[in-house]
Amino acid sequence: MLEIRPICEHCAKSLPNESEEAMICTFECTYCKDCVDNLLENVCPNCGGGFEKRPIRPKELLMKYPSKKEPLLKPVNLIEFEVLKSKNKDLEPNKR
Predict the structure, then answer these.
(1) Residue 3 near residue 67 (C-beta atoms within 8 A)
(2) Partners of 32 in the β-ladder
(3) Where are the alpha helices (DSSP H) in 1-96?
(4) Is 20 exposed, middle or buried (0-12, 13-18, 19+ CB in 10 A)?
(5) pLDDT the model gives residue 57
(6) Torsion of CA 41, 18, 68, 88, to 10 degrees
(7) Residue 95: DSSP 8-state
C-alpha cells in the first residue's frame, strides 16, 4: 500500500493526499511535479526510473489507511545526480 508521503523529497513542498502535484517512482520516491519536470527531467535520483502521478486515496479510506505523517527530506546532490540523469533522461522509462 502506498505511504502517501507528505512532502517533496527535494524541495519540501507540501504534497498532501489530495495533491495533483505529487509524482512517484516504482519505489515510491516522492517529488513535486516541478522538481520532476525541471530538475530531475523524469529520472529518479535513487533508482534511475521514471515518475508517474501519485494516485489520490479516497477520503473515506484515509481514516483506515492514513497517509504517512513523517516527512522524508533528502535533497538531491545535483553534482552526483548529473551522471545518472545524463545516462537516462533521453530514454523512455520503459527502456531504462
Answers:
(1) yes
(2) 22
(3) 33-38, 59-62, 78-88
(4) exposed
(5) 97
(6) -10
(7) G
Residue 83: how many CB atoms within 10 A of its CB? 9
pTM for this entry: 0.91
Task: Give the largest Cα separation in the chain, rounded.
Answer: 43
Q: Which three cell numbers stand for residue 21?
A: 502535484
User: Mean pLDDT in each 10-residue stretch from start to end of the chain (96 residues)?
Assistant: 96 98 97 98 97 97 95 95 95 94
- Identity (one letter) of the amino acid at 27? F
What is the C-alpha end-to-end distance of the chain, expressed in Å?
25
Structural Rg of the chain based on CA atoms: 14
DSSP 94: G
